[in-house]
Amino acid sequence: MLAPLVDVMLGNEEDFTAALGFKVADLDENHSRLDAVSFRKMIGHAVQEFPNLAVIAITLRNAKTATVNDWGAICYHGGQFHEAQRRENLEIYDRVGGGDSFASGLIYGLLIGKDPEWAVDCGAAHGALAMTTPGDTSMATLEEVLQAMKSQSARIAR
User: Fold this and answer.
1) Phi, psi of 70 (to 5 degrees)
2) Which of 45, 70, 77, 93 has its CB 3.0 to 4.6 Å from that of 116, i.e. a possible disulfide?
3) What is the value of pTM for the model shown?
4) Total number of domains constituting the chain
C-alpha cells in the first residue's frame, strides 16, 4: 500500500471508501447527501492512520441528474479544514476531467504560495469550469478561474 508513503492525497468519496476502506457517515448509496462534516470525520481517521498526510482534499459532488450537479470540495492542511464555496445546481456539459481540474487548481494555489482556503476555492472553481466544456482537458484561463472564484456559479464571460 502506498498511502503510508504519501504526504498529499486527493480524491473523492469513492476513492477513500473503496480503495482505503474509510467509511463516510450518513453517505447513502446514491451519494445524494455529501455533508462536509461527515467527510471531515473521515479525514480525521485517515490522518490518524497515516500521520504523514499533510494535505488531503476531496471533491464533493451530488449528481442530481447527468447534467445538474452540486459541486464543492474540502481540504485538510496544517491541521485545519478549508471548504470551497459550494456550487448548487451546476449545469454540466461533460463531467469528465472535473476532478483532475480540481486537483490542478488546488495544486497551483499551493505551489504559488496561496493559503489553503484560496487553493481549495481555486480547485473547485477550475473543476466547475472544466465541466462546462467538452473533453477532459480544461479550456479555462486563469482569468476565468479567478472570475469563477468570485461567484457562486461557473457562468463566465468567454
Assistant:
1) -90, 140
2) 77
3) 0.89
4) 1
- Which three cell numbers, joined as nine digits, stand for 133? 466544456
In a domain? residue 157: no
Query: Is residue 155 in a domain?
Result: no
CATH code: domain of residue 98: 3.40.1190.20
Grouping H, G, I as helix, E, B as strand and the rest as coil, residue 35 is coil
- The residue behind cell 499533510 is 54
Q: Residue 90 is placed in which grid cell?
A: 451546476
Q: Is residue 104 part of a domain?
A: yes
Strand 8-11 and strand 55-63: the pairing is parallel
Q: Which three cell numbers mark 72? A: 464543492
Contacts of residue 99, Cβ cutoff 8 Å, sequence gap at least 6: 10, 11, 12, 59, 127
Range of the domain at 113: 3-149
84 phi, psi to nearest 5 deg: -70, 155
